[in-house]
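Memo to structure team: turn this sequence into structure tokens by end of day. - J.P.
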Amino acid sequence: MNKKKMIRLTALVGVATATGVVAEANQAHAATTTTTETTNQTTNASVESTQAAVDAAQSAFDTAQTSVDNAQANVTSASNNVTSASAILSSAIANKEVATSENIASATSAVSSQAVVVASASQAVSEQAGVVSAAASVQASAQAEATSASASLSSASANVASATSALSAAEAALTSDQSTAANNLSAAESAASSASAAVSSDQAAVDNAQAAVASAQAIVDAVAEVQSSDVINMSAAYITALKNYLANPSSANAAALQEVAKGADYVKELQQKFKSDASLDVVDPSDPAVQEALSVYAVNLINHLRNQYGLTTAFGASANANVAALDFVKKYYDDKNWNIFGTTGSDGQGHNKNGLDAYAVQLNTSIAEDAGSGLTTWVNGKATMATTTLHNLLYAVYSDIATMLFDDGGTNNWSHAQSIFEDGTILGTDGFNNVYLGVAFDKYGYAHYELYNATEGNRLGNNAYSLDVQTAAQTLLTNAQATLASAKASLQRMTTNLMVAKAAVVAAQDQLAALENSSASDSAAVTAARTQLESAKTSYQTALATYQQKEAALEKANDELANVQASLEAAQATLATAKAKLAELEETVANLTNADQLLAAAQAAYEQAVANLTVATGNLEAAQVDLAKAEAQLALAEEAVEQAEARAEIATQVDQQLNGSNANDRQSAGQDATSLKTNGRSLTATVATASAANPKRGADQGRLPQTGADNQEASAMALVGLGMLGMATGLYGYKKKKLTK
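Reply from structure team:
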């Protein structure tokens, strides 16, 4: 329930009353504490009492509202009854107006005529019921015959199934042994075929293993051949000149280094020392075993040179570094058709520096690349990727490193030699503290030597190779030989299995041939079973024809019964319509005959409904009056609560002021009284302003200071508040509250 109210301050504290209160202040000061405590208790009790009155008034208001709601519902119901009774009365008046003797006689005659129609329709229903009964009898007989024919058909079908089963059993007996023998033969032939395939597969494995042994043996032989004599030695003069140049790459130091290195002449001399063997098989440079041999060989050549140079840190070789080298060359040279040297050595694209930068970011490491002419420097003519041997590749590595040392002047500025002999840095780039070398050949036949700084993060040093190439090659050969031995053993087992399988095929063939001459009795049983099956099928066809005939007769009887039943239902519907019409005519005669009685009853019912509505309306008005009273009582109770709360608050403030006063305060209060008598009009205006600003709380609390020069004003205001406490009945005026629900 939403309640709105307006409160207006209508009375002000009178000057005389306030002055009287001030005059009595000094006399009552000694009992101030007791008086204020009593006042507080009284005002608090008043608040509680008035709140209880509000609760009681609210309950009374709610009860009155419920009564109004119920009375309103009763008025609505009574009004609806009046409307209904009025309609019935109007109908009775109309009926009375047409209730003449002529109309009554005419309606009675219509009833008689309709009675004849009903009798005729009833006779038609009886006759049609007899027709339906006869048709139902015919249908029942046809159903019985169809059921009997169905049973005969089922029996004939069972006989056919039995004969079929007997024939199947006889045929199974005839073919069982032969089928078993044929299956055995098929299984034996399948096993022999599988064994033959296994032998072929193992033979291929043996051939591959033998090829692997031959390849490993070739690597062992090649490594043994080059390991002992194919090393590169530097003279003391060359080492000194190279160190001078790397420390100060001046033109004079470059010329001195070129003179000591002897350039291409010394390279050719080294190339001629490399032992040549053209009898090795063709190999794939990207084969892991070949790549291992190349990288280990290159690292051993470089580490031998670094040792001569006086360096103690060595390069390493690993499978991971080789895999990275192959991936890099494929991605940034082969796939991009990047020809580093071109066809003449001077028309190429050079190093793919962008690719190097990108791959360094990918691996999160430092990368440097040396490149050599690779297979194009073969002294016996250029080798191709399709015809190269391991010896070709080893020579390419040897020749490239020799060229980097002794023929690296000119535009290269000995940068390749610098990359071999630097420690912790390569070509001025730091971060090469753990160098691993990966070797790869591009599709043009050029060799790439990728120098990686290996870390735990990039794992480029993982799967490191042993730099003892002779031992590594021998291990490769030993593993290949073990694989060959295993393949030969498997081939031997598969060959034995094939011999056993072929013997099983011969035995199965002999068993099948023997069984083909021992099935005469089984054939006779099959013939007899077939004869019995044909007889059963004939009987089944006869039973099927009879069943179909009886089913057709039953369907016809069902249709006839449905038709006559439909006719019966139509006759019954006609009879029902005639009876309804007769009842309507009889009701009309009764209404006309009893028009006076019907009108009197309708008039009485209408008057009673009007009387009930009058009573309900009076009850509603009374309930509304009670509701208005309860509403007013509730408004008064709520106003009383607010007055009590205001008095309690003023009493509390006066108590606080009086309890804090001393003897000087009482003297000041006397002075305030004199001032109040003289300036009563001004005080009255002040109180009115404070009350209008906050009508619920009376004078402004903010005008009650605690200390200082304003004590005189505080005392006067406190006394005025005390005077207001006694004027509760005159403090507020009211406007009627408006409550809406």
